[in-house]
Amino acid sequence: MKKLCYMLLFFCILVIYQSFAVSNTEEVNKNTPLREIVFDTETTGLIPEKGDRLVEIGAVELINHVKTGKTFHKYINPQRDVPEKAVNIHHLNNEFLADKPTFAEIAQEWLDFVGDNSVLVAHNANFDMKFLNFELKRAGYKEYEKEKFIDTLKIAREVFPSQPNDIDALCSRLGIDNSEREKYGHGALRDTELLADIYIKLLSLKVVNTIKYAIKNNKKLKIKYQSHPNYGNEITVRTIIPQQLEYGSVLMSGDQKYSFTLKNDELYLNAFCELRNDNRTFLVSRILEIELLDSFNPSHHIFKSNSKYHRLA
Question: What is the pLDDT of residues 242-251, one digit of tens each?
């Protein structure tokens, strides 16, 4: 009987250990790259339900918020006249579009480029989503769910409230060269390249604003983070307690493997990392996603080391 009790106790400990190990593995090994497709469309008008159609679509691939150089670009025969008002915007007239493929003819190529697990990013995304889904449905394909889209206009309004947030205004405010757009006008691929740069900069500003809010209001953060290349660019999901934002000037402590001098032009976050149960320094530009969590009582939390000496995450 005593032997049986020991066996049962051993079995329970083993189950608990395995459960803990699996949960930690799931937390650490989130190495699926974040793939986003930034895209833009040009159309014959504003209302697909009244006969307006796509005439151009352009897209740029991002992996973990970095341009890969992979793009998609098609001019599309709308199978109808293009009003002069629309031509004045994008310069795509009936004659130019006459020999271009229809959307139905390029739909599968578009779907293959986007893939199943990518996020679609657009400026004023409801407009592009409406046209894209209308064309997909018309061609006999499944429409995209609304949750698949990120709207950069919404992000811009959060970062720059009560300010103009069109493409040109954002380029000017964020220091992005849009001289080709000013010279040649609208173009789906040209605008998408600009939008990708805008999106990356807006995300960085949003991340910084969220971190500042969390520090001021004693909030924990949940982040999806891509580690330093020395650690194999590992992607992890972590709960952290942010302590301080600073530009790099601190020599990392620890053994030689983990010793780095931070670049002065890079922004870093010192934080307590619950996954590692220690303080870490995070490169802000490598934070892929960020989410505010519950508040904590700082008087009840013991930080493990001097904030000036964190290992780089």
Answer: 999 988 654 4
pLDDT value for 230: 73
Q: How far apart are CA 28 and CA 46, in angstroms?
A: 46
Q: How many CA atoms lie within 13 A of 205 on its CB side?
A: 16
Helix (H, G, I), strand (E, B) or coil at 70: strand
State the helix-helix crossing angle for 152-159 and 188-216, rounded to 10 degrees: 40
Among 193, 131, 129, CA closest to 167? 193
Q: Is 269 helix (H, G, I), strand (E, B) or coil?
A: strand
Cα gap 311→257, rounded to integer Å: 10
Q: Which two tokens stand for residue 75?
A: 């001019």
Which burial class, exposed, middle or buried, applies to 140 when counting CB atoms under 10 A from its CB (0-12, 13-18, 19+)? Answer: exposed
Confidence of residue 120 (pLDDT cuts 50, 70, 90): very high
In angstroms, rounded to a whole number, what is the distance separating the alpha carbons of residues 74 and 55? 8
**What is the distance between the terminal CA atoms of the chain, rounded to a whole angstrom?**
50
96-110 core/surface letters (b: 16 or more CB in 10 A; e: else): ebeebebbeebbeeb
User: Token pair of 247, please?
Assistant: 């530009």
Angle, in degrees to the nearest 10, between helices 103-114 and 125-138: 120
Q: Residue 34 carries which side chain, given as an amino acid letter?
A: L
List the domains of the chain with CATH numbers.
35-205 (3.30.420.10), 217-312 (no CATH)
Label residue 89 left, alpha or beta by phi (over 0 means left) and psi (-120 to 50 means alpha): alpha
304 phi, psi to nearest 5 deg: -85, -20
The residues assigned a catalytic role are 186
**Residue whose pair of structure tokens reads 């008002």 in the numeric block:** 85
**Three-state secondary structure call for residue 176:** coil
- Spatial contact of 235 and 228, defined as CB atoms under 8 Å apart: no
pLDDT over threshold 80, residue 2: no
